[in-house]
Amino acid sequence: MSSVFAQQEKGIIGANNWLSNWTEFHPNEENYDEPRQILTGNITSDIKLEKRNVYLLVGNVFVTNNATVTVEPGTVIIGDYDTKASLTISKGSALIAKGTETDPIVFTSNRSVKRAGDWGGIIILGNAPTNKFGNGSVANFYDQLDPSNYVNTNYGGDNINSNSGVLNYVRIEYAGKRKKDGGYFNGLLLAGVGRETGVDNVMVSFSGGNSIEVWGGHVSLNKMVSYKANYNDFKFNYGAQSKISNSLVLRSPYVSNSSGARCLQVKSYEKMDEVDFSKKLTSVTAVNLTLYNTSDNIREDIKMGLVREAVYVSENASLDMTKSVISGFNPAVLFADKIVVNQENLDKIKFSNMYFNNCNGNIFIENNSNNEDLENWYGNHAFSNVYSKSHNAETFIDIASNSRRPDYRLRINKIIASNEVNSELRDN
């Protein structure tokens, strides 16, 4: 064992703490003015939402007819609880929500005591390819959908560069309502969204469903934050060709669903017969992610079944994950049981320059406790993966002294690391 001083930076990075100013880790303590304007029905022409007004989103609001909604920095849009409001940007339309570091745009709940799933969320539908047969539809997300809006629920096409707008310095809080069919809205769903769409500095907090889900498309995500989601934090599906970089997940074992919820889930389909295998399957590049479980007692929470794996990769999907931190999970990574451990699949699922900390095992196949082949492969020095049992206070720069402005960048010079797998948690 030796101190590492020249180690490559892993996890979220930056010369300064980019979480400062625009994020909010206590959103229930924020108070906003009463709404002055209502957004409802279909928006069919360009509009601008101004900071001086607080807007109430009522029911299922669709932006259609190639219209653009432009939102000023600092604007607050409140999702109505009674009507389970949602905002959908239909294919060809756009949302330009460009906040600033000191004046972010906020989507939140109108309840006095806010809870996950208070309102629907934001759905952006683009014209980029998916691996589905024909176009996809999100019609099943809406309760009592007006038949005239079915055409506005379609997504997918052949333009990998399609532009659905910009999300920058945006917070989405308490979204993810439960649907009548038992599923959930996501905080943010990007379906068939193209390469020219900008998604940076977006924080999704207390989502009743997934925080951020990507279906197909070629969108890249940067400086994303998922905070205490009930289900998955980042889920990629249906042929997504995506990169996610410099992003943070904070999971709580007392909030997150303990069955099938992960920080990062990579799939190509839910059912094989719904996709066209002649089209591209899901391929995700993940760079400089920090996936952190906020458990105070990881061993007890594991015994109680509250902590699961951080990363889940399904069959026929690719993940290249590097320079990332996975801290406090059981285990760090799980492959679907249909994945055969062979050269072809190992070439499609890569982990390099990783920092696995305080995990109850590292990389396993689902329903198989024997991971010797995987440990030997990913533990090879060529991948430069590091395994550690460092205390959180020594691992991250500052996660205790300022709960409103924590700093989850890695404390590089304090890491005591080894390239040998430490199985202390698994053995106890």
TrEMBL record:
It comes from Algibacter mikhailovii. This is T9SS C-terminal target domain-containing protein. The lineage of its organism: Bacteria, Pseudomonadati, Bacteroidota, Flavobacteriia, Flavobacteriales.
